[in-house]
Amino acid sequence: MNGAKVAQKSEGGIMNDISGRILTADGWVDGRVTWQDDRVAAIIPEDVPADAPYILPGFVDLHCHGGGGADLMEGGDAAAKIAALHARFGTTAMLATTMTDTVPAITRAMRDAGAVMAAQAPDQAAILGVHLEGPFIDRTRLGAQPDAAIPASIPLVDDFNALAPIRVVTMAPEADPEGEVTRYLDGKGIRVQIGHSSCDYETAALAFESGRHGVTHMFNAMTPLHHRAPGIVGAALAHAEHAEVIPDLLHVHPGAIRVALRAIPNVYAVTDSCAATGMPDGDYRLGTQPVRRCGNGVRLADGTLAGSCLTLLEAFQNFVKIGLSIEEASARTSTIAADYIGVWDRGRIAVGSIADMVVLSQADFSLQQVVLRGRVREGANP
């Protein structure tokens, strides 16, 4: 059948299944994937109709500020609203992402995100932790971040991490010139990324060799590539193993995306989404900044791009549109991100993995269903 169903009652819970063209961790299988409670139980080859849907791993977003009118920096239940909005579009796991702001404001956002994580609701994408984007950035490369940048601090990182687990930190090398905080975070297994920085090629290249693992929104808010001053972009293309990219085809030209894909082994999509995601055109907030959504762009009053209104469903569709295979587009919207933060039971369909899946039409890659920790819901489409 096309779609999920309750197949049978099994000891320990309900056994469910779904049929189609399944992209498993070992490649394509036509047949059924079954799960019990929230874990994949079996992948069973069998004949399926020629137009059977694609069943792919649920999307994983490591850089997400908002959605559904909510912004993480508001605190309260904002993280819950954001996770619920993105789950409708196939994101099954995510990192709640902060903005540069005062220490009390970031503390509130971290504390309340931690509370939402502890009370995870069944209709929400799993919040796996926090991406701390700022306040350890360079004032000359704020992008849409408020001017509240400060030097990196181990005690402050520890204070934040006690409120909600930090999985990724965006940090300008200028904020940690001796690399002390970077080495500390690296020792704790927290990924450190270069972003919002004006450093030169040599500084960035050294940073990649000494603990910084990736790049935040590649090409945006960083020194560009020039043949006599390669900048952070050049250092990333030459040395980085991982990099985020925002594939809304507005932040980065498709040609530049392909350059990054060719040079950096593990490029993965993020949304960098704000409160305007899933909402109509109009006025919203990104942290303390007023922003306006118009079409597929979100901008400050001066025209600066301010996050995005992208979903990972659209990111997947855009990857395919610019020429990536279904397999590669899926890996770059799920598996690579999960592996990057060491979450081995997400971002893949395999026996024992979390039953997080998206069911897409063969005809146009529209989202038919989302399987979220074993619960089936109808998908939304932009």
Automatic annotation (TrEMBL):
Binding residue positions for substrate: 144, 220-221, 228, 251, 305-307
SUPFAM superfamilies registered for this protein in UniProt: Composite domain of metallo-dependent hydrolases, Metallo-dependent hydrolases
InterPro entries in UniProt: Amidohydro-rel, GlcNAc_6-P_deAcase, Metal-dep_hydrolase_composite, Metal_Hydrolase
GO MF, one annotated term: metal ion binding
Binding-site residues, Zn(2+): 133, 196, 217
Alphabetized PANTHER family for the sequence: N-ACETYLGLUCOSAMINE-6-PHOSPHATE DEACETYLASE
Protein's name in the database: N-acetylglucosamine-6-phosphate deacetylase
Lineage, top ranks: Bacteria, Pseudomonadati, Pseudomonadota, Alphaproteobacteria, Rhodobacterales
Gene: nagA
